[in-house]
Amino acid sequence: MRRYLLLVVVLGSALLGAACRGSEPAAAASTPPVEHRTDVAAVKVAAIDLESTLQISGSVTPQTRVAILSKLPGTLARVTVDIGDRVRVGQVVAELDAREIEAQVDAAAAAVNVAEAGLEAAEAALANATLEHERARNLFERGAIPRQRLDAAETARRAAAAQRDLAKATLAQAEASLRRAREVRRDATLASPIDGVVVERNYDAGSLVSPGDKPVVVVADLRVMTLEAGVSELDAGRLRVGMPARVTVQARGGDIFDGRVAAIAPEVDPRNRHFRIEVRTANPGGVLLSGMYATATIPLARAPQALAVPREAVTTRDGRRVALRIDENVVTEVPVTEGLSDGRLVQIASGLQPGDVVVSDARQDVAPGAKVNPIVK
Asked: CA–CA separation, 250 vs 50, rounded Å?
């Protein structure tokens, strides 16, 4: 009896094991295969106000900057301003030692006085010679004196007239010398020709200067600042004098200064094929300093509520501009027509609809028909 029970248990275990092994393929066959999807960054097509702009960068400089140089060689007697001082038109900024110049002015003035006295004497001599000539002519007409006396009186009158003319010329020469001496004396005083701020000072009192040296001081009008840059031929053709510009300066954080395109060079620079342009902006409070690095953004065109995607979301495939739209996790290649761009986004004039999801960087190796898992940003 005990043997019989043991045999039944062994047989049952064997049958159970066979049954289990027979059911394993069926269970495996009922499990669905795992679908592989690649995660891709995606964006949703949306309508926004889009603006096409041109950006130029460079250093801002004062619109007006004047170097005040000495016209004369000499020694600086004093320099009355320092860097950062505000000056007005006509304000004295430096003076040369003018003692020798003053002596020359005095000598020239004395020469004028001498010439004036000489002219007065010549005028008196001419008047007397003229009177004597008239008397001699009257006496000659009455037969009281010979012709020789009349000719002598005429010669004396002409000589007096010549002396008078010489005295006039001498006086004119002396007056010219005096004017020149006074001009030299004025040149010994250096004055600012503009309102502005002293941005450079190169000499102190006692320094020797000459016309070929560096400027004594430099004055700049900081009320209007200029940003100069070169642009391509294509960009230059899209610009017009008077177009608005937004100027930002790194040193001023998020401050925006309103500016204008003030000048466009009519001739290309042959070295780089660029046209020089100037953007000018007001500088309230003088917060912009000469040499600060700035960027000017010039709006060129505007498209309100335009469908837009990142520029990288559109690429060229087989000679066409396409975007990779994701429909139910499947990538579809869609031809698109682009409009204006602001440098970061591009307008989609046709091919996509609001709400469409596209691969944010179409340059990726994503084939049409591929199944992806879009990560919408």
From this structure: 24
pLDDT tens, 231-283?
998 888 889 999 999 999 988 877 899 999 999 999 998 888 899 999 999 99
Report how far apart, in Å, the C-alpha atoms of 374 and of each of 42, 330, 358, 364 are.
Answer: 6, 10, 9, 13
Topology adopted by domain 41-50+304-376: 2.40.420
Under a CB-based contact definition with an 8 Å cutoff, are residues 176 and 144 in contact?
Answer: no
Task: Please answer whether residues 303 and 53 qualify as being in contact, where contact means their C-beta atoms are separated by less than 8 angstroms.
Answer: no
Domain 219-302 has CATH 2.40.30.170: yes
Q: What are the b/e assignments for 128-137, b being 16+ CB within 10 Å?
A: ebeebbeebe
Write down the domain spans for the chain: 41-50+304-376, 72-97+188-215, 98-186, 219-302
* CATH class of the domain defined by 72-97+188-215: mainly beta
Token representation of residue 38: 């690649």
**Inter-CA distances, 22 with 154, 206, 247, Å:** 161, 114, 80
* Strand spans (E) along 74-185: 74-79, 86-87, 92-96
Q: With beta carbons less than 8 A apart as the criterion, state whether 41 and 309 touch.
A: no
Spatial CA neighbour of 86 closest among 288, 222, 236: 222
Assigned token pair, 170: 């001498």
Question: Does this model's pTM top 0.70?
Answer: no
How many other C-beta atoms can be found within 10 angstroms of the C-beta atom of residue 75? Answer: 12
- Tell me the β-bridge partners of 281: 225, 259
Report pLDDT digits (tens) over 148-205: 988 898 999 999 999 999 999 999 999 999 999 999 999 999 999 999 999 999 999 9
What CA–CA distance (Å, rounded) separates 153 from 137? Answer: 9
